[in-house]
Amino acid sequence: MRSTKRVGRSVVIFIISLLLTGALASEEVLGQSPQQSPSQERNLYVDLGAIIERAEANYRKGEEAFAKSQLALSRRYFNKAIDEILLSGVDIKSNSRLEAYYRDLVSRIHKHEAIPGDDHSKQEKAEVVEPSALKENTEVVEPSVLDELSDIKETDLPVATLDGVKIFGEYDFNFSIAPPVVQFIEYFVSGRGRSTMEVGLRRSGRYREMAERIFKEEGVPPDLIWLAQAESVWKPNALSRAAAKGIWQFIPSTGTRFGLAQTQWIDERSQPEKSTRAAARYLRWLNGYFAGDWLLAMAAYNSGEGRVAGAIASCGYADFWELHRRNLLPQETRNYVPIILSIIIVSKNQDRYEIDVKPDPTLEYDTFPLPDQTDLKVAADLLGVPYETMQNLNPELRRGVSPPDQTYALKLPKGMKKRFEIAYAKLPEDQRVRKVVIPAEEIARSSKSSYSTRLVSYRVRRGDTLTAVARRHGVSVQELAKINKISSRTRLRSGQTIRVPKKVSTSKAKSSKSRTSSKKVSNSKSKPTSKKATSSRTTKRGKNGTRSRSAKSGKKPSRRR
């Protein structure tokens, strides 16, 4: 077996080396030592300006698509912008310029993808959000524990050697250990990380049974479920500085790659079962890519297969501990693998390390197919359970509201499906989404807004209902029915035209009104009867790109540079 494994690694190393021959040759010409830090080595060959320029170009395309309401297309471009940075091969944390740009990029993307009520502010706070702090119809995110663990330096850890160290327990995969594993065991057992370890061991009870089942089904060692503790301490709404989200901390593009939907209403990176299957499949794929080496697969899960493959090609060894010793991986990845190994070891030997934690009970639930968009608060009221109970069962719902125009499998507390089914059948369709109460001070501010509401024509599409159209335009069914002088129970016909409210810029409305009145005055005075009179009207573009007319005949409009 060992000889077969060595042959497999040799083949991988040989292929990767051939692909990266040019880079290695350049390194020899410059006389660089393989001991040089990876960030210094990569920065010699990578044009940071070009990386940022490509990322910004994709971001601008995403902005344009977003402005046209092409949300799926805009997300693809935003993902490409992020990938330009993450897959560039540069250690972001080692380059202040790239790190500053990346954080700004993620912040801008969040602002575009957010909808009213989204709250990403907790991402920057190193505090645990208690259930009582959860707000209705608000996206709640929590800081990722990996952000904190990845910043730990060797000097922050106790000094340790392998002398006299014995690892107890049976494990689902073969691995070797090095001093960093012993250091992190000490950190989690006797150091600052003990509380983090205990929180993770407790929360793991909610998902452990499900995760082990899925990992077995996907052919991945069940012990590797403890990646979730290192990534998020098993929190579905954990959000990292790098925009990674969920128990398994998928960045947007990798989540999409493994089938996790991400829309303005739902983010399946936070859906425990779907994201767990995606994580298992990604790990299995990485294991095959690195010839069956689970330590390299874990390292690549953290920093990407391209970065790990490049590090292997640089030193010629497909061995994580060799890459660690030569400092060929980012600090976060150098911490990541020993952190996971230490968590696995501690979880298997809690009595030996005097850890006494009672795991949370397994999350058990029934599912009900919601035929239309429904508020979790409404569902909670129908069942007589706290709102946070429903939010904990359905963490993928970004706003606490199921997606419109599609069936959603709502998770309900175990044993309450029949009760909900009966109550939901009696609930009027227009009461499925709870009205949002706007504070008086907000109403006062909105009265001074630069936007006003106007009625515009809307052509009914196939499948449209009065409820769906009302919700889409932010009004109640009764109000929409009153505007169109019809019953709130009226069935809409495809092709029918109705009037709906639409927000428009007050400044544009005034400008339009001004141009209209100006045109009327001009027409009342005289009508052009000759080509000369017609051509006397010249146009110029203002700063906002709109055209204004000059009524002074015989004079050309002045140009400003």
General description of the model:
The protein has helices at 2-19, 21-29, 38-43, 48-67, 71-86, 96-113, 145-150, 179-189, 194-217, 227-232, 252-257, 272-289, 294-303, 305-315, 320-325, 331-348, 376-383, 387-393, 417-426, 440-447, 466-472, 477-484, 506-525, 531-535; strands at 142-143, 238-239, 365-370, 408-413, 451-459, 497-505, 538-541, 547-550. It has 561 residues and is mainly alpha-helical. Among the domains are: 144-360, Lysozyme, CATH 1.10.530.10; 365-431, no CATH class; 449-507, LysM domain (Membrane-bound Lytic Murein Transglycosylase D, Chain A). Strand 7 and strand 8 (547-550) form a beta hairpin. Helix 8 crosses helix 16, helix 12 packs across helix 13 (294-303) and helix 21 packs across helix 22 (477-484). The protein starts with a helix and ends in an 11-residue tail after the last strand.
